[in-house]
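For reproducibility, we list the full input for the pyridoxal-5'-phosphate complex.
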Amino acid sequence: MSTIEKFNEHVMHSYGRYDVVLEKGKDRIAVDENGKEYIDFGSGIGTNSLGYCNDKWVDMVCNQVKSIQHTSNYYYTKVQADFAEKLTAITGYKNMFFGNSGAEANECAIKIARKYSFDKYGKGRHNIITLVNSFHGRTLATLSATGQEVFHNYFFPFVEGFINVEANNIEDLRAKLDDTVCAVMFEYIQGEGGVCALEQDFVDEIYKLCAEKDVLTIADEVQTGVGRTSKFLAGDWFGKKADITTLAKGIAGGIPMGVCLAGEKCAQVLTPGTHGSTFGGNPIACAGGLAVLEKAGDESFLAEVREKSDYLRKKISAIDEVASLSGIGLMVGIELKNKKAADVVKAALDEGLLLLTAKTKVRLLPPLTISYEEIDKGIAILEKLLK
Ligand SMILES: Cc1ncc(COP(=O)(O)O)c(C=O)c1O
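The corresponding predicted structure, in tokenized form, follows.
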């Protein structure tokens, strides 16, 4: 029985998968079971931030595996403390909670927002504004938060208390941000929604209204964070820092980790027994995370990411079939003139290139360590496919 047959026999069919069995990888190159190589412009949906098996990352992870792989959150470990110290130093947040995924990081943010408001104002101020076309995860609460009707099926009843506002519609925001609201949650660049950045005016208005009403801002930087946009947080592009920021995907370089960062205002909201996770803060994930932070937390590394993304964007813009580019840094959405993104992504597999889609666009989330040579090679393939 082939791997694909065996897999399909025993694993639930909740994904549309490509017929590729990846076996190993090194840096930006993935290798399938037949030895075929692929340049990776997707990094496991923005997760292998340092590529496959980066040397330093491997050393740090393997050393951790040999010392302590897990303990309960009844005890402390040094690697967790080191990671949290470094991440809060880089981001300027007061403290953080450890989870294992983007959805969990957002669940934590939702709980903090509701408890912050309950502690201060009592019941009745539990609503959270999220944006139309957002994506916040697959748990029931984060699905309910997600502002896309296609996700609001089958699993009724959904979690109540989420109100959708149209992205970039200031009037809609003003009308819905009433006394029942405890937080506004948003992605600076909607990733799954099609790599669509918010407008500065709209972001300004969110922060202004929230400050006036003591409503918390929650930036979901699960996809945009950890250097993806060539700044550590995408909020830096907008000159903003939310009360709460969530991170996951690239934070530990391919080991499950989700983080909920809190500013001074809400850093003490969670008290013993109010939230937890068995695996949260897993030492192996923290070791991988430290390797990522050493790179992505370094300004000169981020400057290189910026230069490479400028180079990549310029080359893609020059392709005839490309209608427009969206996103910031190495989070790239490509709107095509005539071809279908899904067809291009599928055809790219035959040519040895891993791409992603986001709605109608081709989406690129290459490892932050991508080289100029790999950019050239990958774009040459894309250019050929778009002819
Ligand atoms: C912005 C955003 N938030 C949350 C999530 C959910 O993350 P996870 O799949 O790790 O739960 C995603 C995943 O694509 C995301 O892009």
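The pocket of pyridoxal-5'-phosphate is lined by residues 101-103, 106, 135-137, 187, 191-192, 220, 222-223, 248 (CB under 6 Å). The chain has twelve helices and 17 strands. Both points were considered when choosing residues for closer inspection.
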